[in-house]
């Protein structure tokens, strides 16, 4: 009798934990859906008012090209996760697509501002927001995407990387090191939250 009661209690606790976790992921999906729309508007605004000043002296780039980049890439980057957060809220796939899109948006904003140091903080803020999912795998996905973005930006768009010049591979490694540094604490926080739940 006692064993049956303990088993029922354990099953009920596990079910409540799953429901709470799904609810938390759905709420975080909703937050990111709104954030994606806001970021898209911010990217278009940046392309109109910040980019022309950031890319002065670059003959290849004209403000209208950056505006089209912000409109088209911004819509693509934000549209897919927005649809998933509406159609499949709380799903693991949605979380990973949101993570990928959030990091691509960081790359887009860094590009539009010509690599302004302040814009790079978007990456670290995004990682903190992604930790709301309490899923360390989402942080790994996001970290891989932003590291790849930083690496390829260093090759194809050096102005969008801080302190152009020097060894690009070393700068990418250093940048990745800071991302890992933040992720260590975010993963610890995620695991503690899950354990306490």
Radius of gyration: 20 Å
Q: Helical region count?
A: 7
Distance between the termini: 27 Å
What kind of oligomer do you see? single chain
Could you say which overall geometry the principal axes of the C-alpha atoms support? elongated
Strand proportion, as a percent range, falls in: under 5%
Structural class computed from helices and strand pairing: mainly alpha
Descriptive notes:
The chain has 197 residues and is mostly helical. The chain is 82% helix and 0% strand. It has seven helices and no strands. It has helices at residues 2-49, 51-54, 63-87, 92-112, 117-130, 136-156, 168-196. Helix 6 (136-156) packs antiparallel against helix 7. The relative contact order is 0.11.
């Amino acid at each position: 009798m006692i064993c049956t009661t303990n088993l029922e209690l354990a099953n009920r606790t596990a079910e409540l934990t799953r429901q709470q976790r799904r609810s938390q992921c759905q709420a975080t999906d909703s937050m990111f859906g709104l954030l994606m729309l806001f970021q898209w508007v911010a990217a278009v605004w940046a392309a109109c008012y910040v980019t022309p000043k950031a890319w002065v002296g670059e003959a290849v780039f004209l403000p209208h090209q950056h505006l089209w980049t912000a409109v088209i890439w911004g819509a693509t980057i934000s549209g897919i996760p927005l649809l998933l957060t509406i159609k499949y809220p709380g799903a693991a796939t949605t979380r990973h697509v949101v993570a990928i899109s959030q990091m691509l948006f960081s790359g887009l904003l860094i590009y539009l501002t010509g690599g302004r140091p302040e814009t790079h903080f978007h990456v670290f803020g995004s990682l903190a927001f992604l930790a709301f999912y309490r899923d360390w795998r989402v942080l790994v996905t996001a970290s891989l995407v932003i590291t790849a973005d930083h690496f390829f930006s260093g090759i194809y768009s050096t102005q969008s990387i801080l302190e152009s010049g020097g060894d690009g591979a070393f700068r990418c490694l250093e940048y990745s090191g800071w991302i890992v540094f933040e992720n260590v604490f975010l993963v610890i926080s995620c695991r503690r939250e899950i354990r306490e739940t």
